[in-house]
Design goal:
The protein contains 30 helices and 21 strands. The protein is of the alpha+beta class. It folds into five domains: 3-179, Hypothetical protein af1432, CATH 1.10.3210; 204-339, 2-Layer Sandwich (Beta Polymerase, domain 2), CATH 3.30.460; 478-547, no CATH class; 575-638, no CATH class; 647-721, Alpha-Beta Plaits (2-Layer Sandwich). Strands 1, 2, 3, 4, 5 and 6 form a six-stranded mixed beta sheet that branches. A hairpin with a 2-residue loop joins strand 19 (677-685) and strand 20 (688-697). The longest helix has 33 residues, at 469-501.
Length: 727
């Protein structure tokens, strides 16, 4: 028998031992394809790459033990990602279920390839694939476990990146799926590579105390075993030392040395029966022999955790006054505790892809990605990690209904858990009949009554103390909507008032003005006005003091910005015939640099000395001044009815700087009627982009169409015709 034949037989034998049923042909077929696909590939260690999918399949078969489909998917999980065989090939040869699981594991790999979540949409895809079939993440967790076991072959930087990602993402997933042994091993391995010095210290200390601990556990459990034998209760009693990462965490959070961590002494009693009442009988016997600590009692049998975990936890005062943690559960409960979701496959016949016992977990996942409207990937992933790994508390409604919430939850979190509308209209809360602040931290067993009012709306301060994803998402959504309404109302109010008081000011000048008054953006300015309509009068008064006389504007315009001067110099070279008093004359003329008219603008002419006819827009400030003085050199002019000439024009853009924004703007302009871009100047400060585009346009409708299209580019807040005005 060859080495590969022995590997296949080892895998099949493991499947026969641990799975309810095995499609051996499916396993063989997946084994052979994986071997063929990876035959020329090597791992960092130099060993054949096929060893990796084989070991992942062994982990799924031996340590998780869901079903034969999961084992086959483990063998194939890297085939689509790393070899010439595509998903269509997998689907045609193995069916839709196997193909969908392999596709899900590939998507997760793509998302975490750079060790960070790039977009919210990708993270939602990950979550959705898990909801569709939880075996996707089971295979990926097994894949990560084997990678962690072989991490020593990578460079230190890669080791630490992968170890950190394992702690942040895969350990919480294993916790939520109830894969306790795998979770502990991944934690210890990550601990080893992230904190090697501390890892060695804890490992040496635990190893040195091993015999002492084993002797103590034996002396502690002997009287319990004797009493259980007398009561004819068949149980298995074992010592349960804490894993290294847990010990180190408790040393760090409690500021204690290893000798003071009582969890080093822990006992598990597994009742050889499915009768949960016997667990309570065992608890009674333990409490008779050793004094229990009431506040350390937890009954997860009556109220299981969200991942299905059931057990009685109690801490008692043992020999020599040492504290010992005792866990009591049935064999079935123990298997669920150790193998989580996998145990549901073992205890069900004809199980669907989504086990009904996991529906609460799946509902929780759906709530996470379904209710999020955040566009910030970091915000989403932090919220998700928080919800994955938090301890749970048990809260009751006044009618006695149970709600499971993360540790640290407040009445606001509870209100949103009951219903979004209740959360948004909360004005007060009672705990056991007593009024409490809404920021009060809830404790397991609290009975909470929420008081609401239709007039109440979410408070921005709530976001500072709520902990559940649902509450944070709903509160932030309301805040953003309210902020958006204030900005829109403020802008409308400002435009009406400016028009009424006839203050000539461009957006560029307005930005300079508000910056002078420590306001960072136009949005913030409009929001201030929208919140408090009275503040607009103060801004109007300040602006009137800030505006300089027209004479000073002319002086400032002569100095000009270098970019605008170049633009005007080019524009003056492009002359076309002008209708003067209804007829077309070849009269020396040029376009005024103060307003730069283009076809479509209402225009007027001014006869100068030495420079011929100057063409202005009819709304130009300088022309308005001359007209008010009844200057006879001002004459009526107009554009020819048809003109094929193009005119140089400038547009100014302000928005949020981002990668690719210049490319998006340029593409939007150039693709509209083959518009020619003459020059571009862009600057960025504090993530705010200020850009100037000099373009050739046919007429005013052409320009307005371009402005409308550019306004739709993501991140652009302001698009306006480019004019230089000194203020």
């Amino acid at each position: 028998m060859s080495q590969l034949d022995r590997k296949l037989e080892e895998l099949l034998s493991t499947c026969r031992t641990n799975l309810k049923s095995v499609d051996e042909d499916l396993i063989r077929k997946a084994f052979e394809l994986s071997l063929t696909a990876h035959q020329h590939d090597k791992r960092e260690s130099g060993e054949p790459y096929f060893n990796h999918p084989f070991e992942v399949a062994m982990i799924v078969a031996r340590e998780i033990s869901i079903d034969d489909i999961s084992v086959a998917c483990s063998l194939l999980h890297d085939v689509v990602e790393d070899t010439k065989f595509d998903l269509a090939y997998i689907r045609s040869n193995f069916g839709n279920i196997v193909a969908d699981i392999v596709d899900g594991t590939t998507k997760i790999s793509d998302i975490f390839r750079s060790h960070e979540v790039i977009t919210v949409d990708n993270y939602r895809k990950l979550l959705l694939s898990i909801v569709n079939d939880a075996r996707v993440i089971v295979v990926k967790i097994a894949d990560r476990l084997h990678n962690m076991r072989t991490l020593e072959f990578l460079k230190i930087e890669r080791q630490q990146k992968i170890a950190r990602e394992t702690l942040d993402i895969y350990v919480p997933f294993a916790h939520r799926l109830g894969l306790a042994k795998i979770k502990w091993e991944m934690e210890d391995l990550a601990f080893k590579y992230l904190n090697p010095v501390e890892y060695d210290e804890v490992a040496v200390a635990v190893k040195s105390k091993r015999k002492t601990r084993e002797n103590y556990i034996k002396r502690f459990t002997d009287p319990i075993s004797e009493k259980l034998h007398q009561e004819r209760i068949v149980c298995e009693i074992t010592g349960r030392p804490k894993h290294l990462f847990s010990i180190w965490n408790k040393m760090k959070t409690r500021s204690k040395v290893i000798d003071e961590i009582y969890d080093l002494f822990a006992v598990r009693i597994i009742v050889d029966s499915d009768d949960k009442n016997k667990c309570y009988n065992v608890y009674g016997i333990v409490s008779e022999i050793y004094k229990p600590i009431p506040e350390r009692f937890k009954d997860y049998i009556s109220i299981p955790k969200k991942n299905g975990y059931q057990s009685i936890h109690t801490t008692v005062v043992g020999l020599q006054g040492k504290l010992v943690e005792v866990q009591i559960r049935t064999k079935k409960m123990d298997e669920v505790a150790e193998r989580g979701i996998a145990a549901h496959w073992a205890y069900k016949e004809n199980i669907p892809i989504i086990d009904k016992d996991m529906l609460s977990w799946i509902s929780w996942v759906r709530d996470i990605f379904g209710s999020t409207d955040s566009s910030d990937p970091k915000e989403l992933i932090e919220s998700f990690k928080l919800n994955l790994y938090q301890d749970e508390i048990y809260i009751f409604t006044p009618k006695g209904d149970l709600r499971i919430l993360p540790k640290g939850s407040t009445p606001i979190d509870f209100a949103y858990e009951v219903h979004s509308e209740i959360g948004s209209h909360t004005i007060g809360a009672k705990i056991s009949g007593r009024m409490v602040p809404l920021s009060t931290i809830l404790k397991s067993g609290d009975q909470v009554e929420i008081i609401t009012s239709k007039k109440q709306t979410p408070n921005a301060d709530w976001d500072k103390f709520v902990v559940t994803h649902k509450a944070k998402s709903q509160i932030r959504r309301w805040i953003k909507e309210k902020q958006r309404n204030h900005i829109e109302a403020g802008e409308q109010l400002w435009q009406r008032r400016i028009k009424k008081v006839k203050i000539p000011i461009s957006n560029d000048d307005l930005i300079k003005f508000i910056s002078h008054h420590k306001i960072e953006s136009l949005s913030e300015f409009y929001e201030i006005i929208g919140k408090d309509g009275q503040s607009i009068d103060q801004f109007i008064n300040l602006l009137q003091l800030h505006i300089k006389p027209i004479a000073e504007q002319s002086k400032g315009a002569k100095q000009g910005a270098s970019l605008f001067s170049k633009f005007i110099q080019t524009a003056r070279k492009l002359a076309t015939d002008i209708n003067i008093l209804g007829s077309t004359y070849s009269f020396k003329h040029s376009f005024a640099k103060c307003c730069n008219p283009i076809p479509g603008d209402e225009i007027i002419g001014f006869i100068t000395t030495g420079e011929g006819l100057k063409i202005h827009r009819i709304t130009c400030r300088n022309i308005l001044l001359l007209q008010s003085q009844k200057d006879e050199r001002v004459i009526k002019v107009g554009w020819p009815k048809t003109s094929e000439s193009e005119f140089l024009c400038g547009i100014r853009l302000v928005g949020k700087d981002r990668m690719g924004i210049l490319q998006d703007i340029s593409k939007t302009i150039s693709e509209y009627q083959n518009t020619n871009i003459r020059s571009v100047n862009m600057t960025s400060k504090d993530k705010i982009m200020d850009g100037y585009f000099i373009i050739f346009v046919k007429d005013l409708p052409h320009l307005n169409s371009i402005i409308d299209r550019v306004k739709r580019v993501r991140g652009i807040n302001i698009v306006e015709r480019f004019e230089y005005n000194a203020i």
